[in-house]
Write a structure and sequence with these properties.
By secondary structure, this protein is of the alpha+beta class. It contains three helices and six strands. It folds into two domains: 77 residues, Alpha-Beta Plaits (2-Layer Sandwich), CATH 3.30.70.330; 39 residues, no CATH class. GO terms for molecular function: RNA binding.
């Protein structure tokens, strides 16, 4: 039996595209590298179907979008152990996110501000201390902070 995760703003956009991976990197090493940033739901390295060799590209899906944001900040430009080149970490393109979707998004009206409810706070388990909470947010903009001391 497989259980689907409920859809919400907090999990949308939690999929990352990683390029520049060392050809020798295993999926287990990829997970180990990215697990410092949050809970990983799925991971994948792409391999050439004919040679079986890594294409140096992979995907990581985190439980929450803010975990993916942390991974981009920490690991984009990072040189993995044993590698000579940095990796590129960015959000994976969602289906239908091409030029037409971008044009439609640009033409859409701005969202109306709403009051933040307790259920709107994301990745709360990663927040070690809260200094202030903003009481409004706009549409797709989500506040997520990871404070380290």
């Amino acid at each position: 039996v497989s259980l689907a995760r409920p859809s919400s703003e907090s999990i949308k956009g939690a999929n990352l595209y990683i390029s520049g991976l060392p050809k020798s990197m295993t999926q287990q090493e990829l997970v180990q590298l990215f697990s410092q940033c949050g809970r990983i739901i799925t991971s994948r390295i792409l391999y050439d179907g004919h040679t079986g060799l890594s294409k140096g590209v992979g995907f990581i899906r985190f439980d929450q979008r803010c975990e993916a944001e942390v991974a981009i900040k920490r690991l984009n430009g990072h040189v993995p152990e044993g590698a000579s080149d940095p990796v590129t970490v960015k959000f994976a393109n969602a289906p239908g996110s091409g030029k037409a979707a971008a044009a439609a998004a640009a033409a859409a009206p701005l969202p109306v501000a709403k009051k933040v409810e307790a259920t709107d706070l994301l990745c709360f388990s990663q927040v070690e201390s809260v200094v202030a909470i903003v009481d409004v947010w706009l549409g797709p903009f989500i506040i997520c902070s990871r404070l380290e001391f």
